Amino acid sequence: xxxxxxxxxxxxxxxxxxxxxxxxxxxxxxxxxxxxxxxxxxxxxxxxxxxxxxxxxxxxxxxxxxxxxxxxxxxxxxxxxxxxxxxxxxxxxxxxxxxxxxxxxxxxxxxxxxxxxxxxxxxxxxxxxxxxxxxxxxxxxxxxxxxxxxxxxxxxxxxxxxxxxxxxxxxxxxxxxxxxxxxxxxxxxxxxxxxxxxxxxxxxxxxxxxxxxxxxxxxxxxxxxxxxxxxxxxxxxxxxxxxxxxxxxxxxxxxxxxxxxxxxxxxxxxxxxxxxxxxxxxxxxxxxxxxxxxxxxxxxxxxxxxxxxxxxxxxxxxxxxxxxxxxxxxxxxxxxxxxxxxxxxxxxxxxxxxxxxxxxxxxxxxxxxxxxxxxxxxxxxxxxxxxxxxxxxxxxxxxxxxxxxxxxxxxxxxxxxxxxxxxxxxxxxxxxxxxxxxxxxxxxxxxxxxxxxxxxxxxxxxxxxxxxxxxxxxxxxxxxxxxxxxxxxxxxxxxxxxxxxxxxxxxxxxxx
Amino acid sequence: xxxxxxxxxxxxxxxxxxxxxxxxxxxxxxxxxxxxxxxxxxxxxxxxxxxxxxxxxxxxxxxxxxxxxxxxxxxxxxxxxxxxxxxxxxxxxxxxxxxxxxxxxxxxxxxxxxxxxxxxxxxxxxxxxxxxxxxxxxxxxxxxxxxxxxxxxxxxxxxxxxxxxxxxxxxxxxxxxxxxxxxxxxxxxxxxxxxxxxxxxxxxxxxxxxxxxxxxxxxxxxxxxxxxxxxxxxxxxxxxxxxxxxxxxxxxxxxxxxxxxxxxxxxxxxxxxxxxxxxxxxxxxxxxxxxxxxxxxxxxxxxxxxxxxxxxxxxxxxxxxxxxxxxxxxxxxxxxxxxxxxxxxxxxxxxxxxxxxxxxxxxxxxxxxxxxxxxxxxxxxxxxxxxxxxxxxxxxxxxxxxxxxxxxxxxxxxxxxxxxxxxxxxxxxxxxxxxxxxxxxxxxxxxxxxxxxxxxxxxxxxxxxxxxxxxxxxxxxxxxxxxxxxxxxxxxxxxxxxxxxxxxxxxxxxxx
Lengths: 512, 512
Known about the structure:
- 2 copies of one chain form a homodimer.
- Chain A folds into 2 domains: 14-93 and 290-500, Aminopeptidase; 98-165 and 192-284, Glucose Oxidase, domain 1.
- The first copy, chain A, is 35% helix and 20% strand.
- Chain A is built from 14 helices and 16 strands.
- In chain A, strands 1-10-12-11-13-16-14-15 form an 8-stranded mixed sheet, with helices on both faces. Chain A has an 8-stranded mixed sheet with strand order 3-2-9-5-6-7-8-4, with helices on one face.
- In chain A, strand 14, helix 11 (417-424) and strand 15 (434-436) form a beta-alpha-beta unit.
- At the A-B interface, helix 3, strand 2, strand 3 and helix 8 of A face helix 3, strand 2, strand 3 and helix 8 of B.
- Chains A, B: This is Carboxypeptidase Q.
- Chains A, B: Keywords: Carboxypeptidase, Endoplasmic reticulum, Glycoprotein, Golgi apparatus, Hydrolase, Lysosome, Metal-binding, Metalloprotease, Protease, Secreted, Signal, Zinc, Zymogen.
């Protein structure tokens, strides 16, 4: 409660100053014009998009492809003449893991190849395996007895509760005026817990049982576990089952297959049919470098006083492993790279230093951005401020796919409303005008927001982001390149405005 | 023109009699109630759907799985107590072809398994092949010289013009009242050819060049051709490149892969990268039986005079090869089987004989139904009538997926309007009420219509039929089982009404 009152007081003070602040915002419309022109006429979006997806491939944390992508982006920054290009470690991440072969097919009752891929960081199968598939029925630990000693070398699956239904709603959409208006509403939580204590206990029990099942299957020496995932029509959402921990614990080889293919085997088994599969997973573990990294590069500030200050823009370079991480998040990387390219090409001499950061390991827990913040900005546990804490004016992030920018989330900071209202004016006709006080989460700007440094994610048109992210189909074709051109222009302008503004952007309070 | 005047005259005569015909239509509403009740309470749709898709698998013409499915459906008819169950040949079809293994993955610049499947009736690769992929640029025969002698053992692809874009419209839908109203409109053709003579020539030239390219590639001894197809997000439309001809011509092993995967390789090659793939196709040719077959079964007629007459209901049992032919056309088979099961279970003693026909080889050119017509009904070239020509009152077909029935196409036969208006009355509340004079094509009822025997296809809700038919994702989950229950009930009622009607259904004129 104490915190809330403090917050309200500051908002009130901010309100007193907001009107004058509004009238003071200058935007260099000549520069905005140049940014738009460079972004539209000389767009590098297509080339960047191709390189980051098709050529680099999936960029799972620790993988060979992520290493290649770090080097490729750093080389590109150097080629563009950016300064202080660095592949910068933030500390330890864990083991790298590459898939060298993945194959699964049903052999009986008839041959049918299956769409599937190993869950990340699982062990390989040690060559091609052929086995009957066993559908386990485990309601409690007591059920282990039924299977003890019978599963060695077998392929197993557990029933799924997932199902699929036809898409009577469009799978891709743009935000309507009504959506945008709703997006501005800030709802205040409360009204009871989402789950009852009994439900919560049930969920805990299920998780505990899942873990015991996993341990049991590992001990029994099963050859492979097959899982279904959400997604349909051949699109498969891929996650991880294994661990990148340097403890090198053995894991069960596990593959996630298309829900329809999983359903077919499950139904056959439930109807008493014998199903066999051929499967092979070959993986390579990378144990030569456990560190995690971010890629950094700059356009140095030129104002004598302000040049130690920073404007950051960034996106995460890592992805999941079965697609090429196109919408999540090559799109964000491309937009941010293009934004800084535009500024560099225009020869801007910013007052503050502009720094781009391509984060590692976002998908595994925002490690790259949090590691950077821990190293350079502040400790969010101890509240210890570090060198950059009072130097960073803002961090801008793109990580909601390749849809165009429709506005920005202010993370509750009312002081920013008049500033961003003004800054977005030149982009209303490009569809970007919604300034919302709302929070948004699940990506790298929260690492900054968590230590009181303004960190922003944009409102973006969803297009079909939800249909493809984290899937085997998050590929080049998913990226809306026209939209990304718009986004790069807007980001370049926001970054430029932030770099040139007399003061750093106003902050929310952050202390013990 | 002569024909048209004749046709108008007959329509006029039909009109004179249509009002009395309307008032004469009797529907046995007690039986309709029984049909509805049996269909809803004791539905076998789920079991039939599972067996025909998951258990039988893809049912490509001539394949082992189609043979299994013929036997399984015949056995099921026998189990149900139907009469004259027959696996009836209509003549020669061609070679059977089973896929025993299908694998394709990109190896360089990094490993990535690809979603793909052999085109039907292509040859195998003779084991696992590994090769660089060559993107050919062939604008004319002159370009062959560039490649002559260089392609042996290579994997090749030709550029695609296909592309994919986000689905801003729903991929599944039901017909609205407006759609149904539009469906009733009959437009009269004319207004110029679709293509100009120059365009037609260009298309002919392209087809001729395609054939020459194919011959050239075969001669050069390429190891594999990779093609892209329409479809996206992992859904691949599969066709055939090889031949079931008993001439046993050698074909190029060819795989159709997901458009995004094709696009990735194409872009890499266009950007000068080396791409290699691992691929393997193993096929088995079946040369022990070249005949094509339909599965037939009956509920014999009981009226002394009318029992030699026939009411037919049917659907095609064959499918394409990469899914399990669920919406196309296990759904139709299941609906028709369920319809006759309902009638048999109710112990109906129809005046006319009710015969179900599960056609073979529809996907290869309506061979099963045309073969049946040729054998038993009439020769559509010579206009020679055979035994069943004047005995068949109607043929009912379902082959537009698993969406519920919304009405029926009359194939231009106005005389039928009052009859079907009456017969559909008990189904208005189930959403079926649209009687359209329109034609519809592309499936087995046209074999009957072509010889002047009334053949009907129903108007069905499309759901997501267009997204999945002929694809690797035409699987059990695509089938809307509630809708199929409705369809089976309506078909059973239509068949019953036709069997009991005093006269056969009125026909359009058919003669030389």
